[in-house]
Amino acid sequence: MARVLVGRGHDLAFAGRPEMVPRVRTAGFRAIEIKQAYRQLDGYPTGSHLTRMACYLTSPAVEAEIRDIVAAEAPDLLLIDGMFPAALIQAAELGIPAVVFVHTFVFRQLDMWRRIFATFSDMRQKAGHSPLPSLDDLWRPRERLISTSLGAFDAPPQDGWSHVVHVGPALEDEKFAVPTPLPWPDDDTRPLALVSFSTGFEQRNVDKVQRTLDALADAPLRVVATTGGIVAPSEVAAPANAIVLDYAAHDPILARAAVVVGHGGHGTAMRAMRHGVPMAIIPGVAGDQPYVAAAIDEWGAGVALPADAAPEAIRDAVDRLIAEPRYRAEARRRAAALAGVDGATAAAAEVEATLAN
Question: What predicted TM-score, i.e. pTM, was given to this entire model?
Fold first, then answer.
């Protein structure tokens, strides 16, 4: 979406936590580091995978720095991730028009979003700070809420949410995810399986990657596993039928794949659907992943597995997805709904419409 807007003559910058900065700069955009991202971390309750995230997303120190960044940049419009309460609070207080982005379904899991905001508010209060406004107070007054999903894939809209716009998936590969030659000869007829879990460090799970590789070790498959830079290929033992990579462009692999084993991230799921490839989904810790898994299972375009699925269950799911044509047929039917959908261009058009108003 940023690339489309810049191509149309707009000036755009990303502000975010330190981990974001190199990825944004590699993509060719200006990045502003939020240096206070973890300054108040010591006050947040420990023992949760959400601790660092909650500090960055909700702490008053981050709020203050965002206020300073906005004052220095003097933007005409703020584009804010829906999971960033500290930025949403400042948008409300500064009175600058704002668009909220939700990079997955909205209505299928609206109550889940509310629970996550309540959890963040509780963690912020335990750190000695004021409670957060509710999700409804932060999402509903904004000019637009853009979902990079399809309305046909989401649950029906709810009353009071007429500002929600579904633009469809925006699926650009990052520059370091390049087409990668595979080690098998062209006449190898074994089905190809793509294994891909999260690129978010909070979801790092070496055991899940290894369990999946073990599940497929003696299967008549070729297996490509990408670890997203959060699990080193050297940390797992790859069987003879598998190659493990940090990054690779997924589209060329999916064009040849028979099945995907993934974590239920909306982007990976939509990319697989766009290619008509059925999925076995083992959700991670992100709140939306069980809902994406449930949707794929409900559609008959894949199988939802528990987060602790044993190798035997993973292998059984993959075998079924390959052996039973109904899964591939349903995935291809969903692919038809995604044909010609360009979420980035549609999102940019919504941003420009907001600016025009």
Answer: 0.90
